Amino acid sequence: MFILITSFVVGIFCQNTNYANTNWNKVQGLPSMNATLENYEQLLWLVNISIGVPAQNFSVQVDTGSNILWVPYSVCSNCDINTRYNPSGQSYFKPNGSNYYQAYGSGECSGYVASDIVNIQNTVINTTFTMMFATMEQGFSFPTIMDGIMGISNNQSFTNIFQASFKAGQIKTELYGLVFNQPPLNSYLIFGQINPSLMNQVQWVTPNDIYRWKLFINKFTINGQDYSSQMGSVTSAILDSGTADLIVTEALYGILLKTYLIPAGCIQSGSLYCPCQPTAQELQYLPNITVSFNVVDVTIPFFNLLQNYYVAPQGQQCQVMLTYTSGPPFMVFGDPALLSIIPIFNKTANQIGIIGGVANGIPNGDYPGNEEIDEA
């Protein structure tokens, strides 16, 4: 039996409009193939898991930009997270004798590699899985909110939880996807037997990197104006659920700020802030960004860049989740982009399925970048 969770239709993105007409909140699938995500202020997307027998519970951030699942170990001399895994009395805990280090844009951790039973709570996934138990973690922004991170990147050197569950015969495919919504709508991690009515809407795109979910950008427009030349040599973007911002080039950020955001009444005071409930005059300036990912055009409505605008009273300023890159040779399309589409990931086939985009007629194919070294 399938469940149907309330729906809106994706709107016409070329017009400035309200979020309710420009985003998804429709999921169809078997109940056991959906895990509800907690949306923490549009900054973290958390899923509940348990590790071990007897089970120990953790709430971990879902991160398409990193490689490994980790939680803090019981013996952790430099850990800010209080929830720890205790191996005492665990029936299936098995260290493999190696260590691992993982760095993020904000935060880092290292520890022992071991396997144990991992369950995504209230789903069929309950499989032996290799992960890291951190003996050091520091620099994370929300150590009291999250208990660890579940990395589900495209790194072909690592097996993710869905591949392990598929090999164990618990799910029929190793596909997984993200349905991000702003409250009061629920958000979901979907996997395995995804409903055909949803899969029939997928447009498949080939990443140009064997380590990250990174896509070549053919074209970058703002409110219909082509600014592709302002990308410079940065012609790709990664889809990263572990990043709360949309991170573009410095040149594109300058254009967005001076041509669109400041005329719309936005201010820059440390971070960038815009009216949560803009007037009709301000709306005409606010930018909707459209990028061509190989064969698919994806539009990011401006309201998906505003943190918590849906609960803000008239006259209040909301933080704009937008910044620029001066480091990696790619842009980072974090949560504002993922609020605008439903991505379906097929790691073995090295493909991303995009639901919510528009076919643009550009031929699909491989692009430069497959030789890059993993820095996730």
UniProtKB/TrEMBL annotation:
The keyword Protease applies. InterPro entries: Aspartic_peptidase_A1, Pepsin-like_dom, PEPTIDASE_A1. Keywords: Aspartyl protease, Hydrolase, Protease, Signal. The active site is at residues 63, 240. Residues 45-355 form the Peptidase A1 domain. PANTHER family: BETA-SITE APP-CLEAVING ENZYME, ISOFORM A-RELATED (PTHR47966:SF51). This is Peptidase A1 domain-containing protein. It comes from Paramecium sonneborni.
